[in-house]
Amino acid sequence: MKLALVTGGHRRLGAAIAAALARAGYSLAIHGSHDVELDPVLEEALRETGTRWHGFVADFADPAISPSLMAEVRAHFGALPTLLVNSAAMFGQDLIETVSADDLLRHYTVNCVAPVLLTRAFADMSGGGGDGRSIVNILDQRLAQPHGDQLAYTLSKQALAGFTQIAARELAPRGIRVNAVAPGLTIATPDYDAAKMQRLAGMMPLQALPQPEEIAQAVLYLADAASVTGQVIAVDRGAHLESYSRDFMHL
């Protein structure tokens, strides 16, 4: 059984990734921080494919909860996931002038501590039989040329990027591959109207914004790419090649 645990997998980009995995034949452990109410795109994929799935609620703001999630998934499915996608994230608004210690710690706990502890649990439970198991961390194209907006978020994702390299090296002897995908702006929030999305698309080197399905396809590639570890794929229509002075919502 191919089984994927997708954190934050019930909505937005996580749901697009989970939907693609369902269509690729994975059973799904879908995590949500406070609920597992599914996005319509994921509901449709699960209905079409008849995918075996279960929802798990775990608030990563409490660092003690993260490691137990892996055990819950194994207990429910009777197997350890073959793929872990660390997609859940906290995203707040702060600048160097306003960021607090609490902002920094809360973002770090959700965006880095949880993936690290889930990775450790994933590796420990795999024992010596990790061949074919894979981890994909979701980063952000901004990390290539960071700006000052959402400082706590950016720093926590920088830490996760560094951990991706460390874990790839440390877990390779155990047959576990660790990679990452760095998405660009893809799913609009209420801060963006259609005109703004079109204008921002024109600011990308490839004159368009990436689609959620394209990011999901990169995750699928890394899940199956047996010779690839320690890599970051930017799926952003070239945005990582440019230096933007501020977050896209302010441009």
UniProtKB/TrEMBL annotation:
Source organism per UniProt: Sphingobium subterraneum
Signal peptide start-end: none
Protein name, as recorded: NAD(P)-dependent dehydrogenase (Short-subunit alcohol dehydrogenase family)
UniProt entry tagged with the keyword Oxidoreductase: yes
Similarity comment: family membership: Belongs to the short-chain dehydrogenases/reductases (SDR) family.
GO molecular function: oxidoreductase activity
Gene3D superfamilies to which the protein is assigned, alphabetical: NAD(P)-binding Rossmann-like Domain (3.40.50.720)
UniProt superkingdom: Bacteria
Keywords: Oxidoreductase
Pfam family, one: adh_short_C2
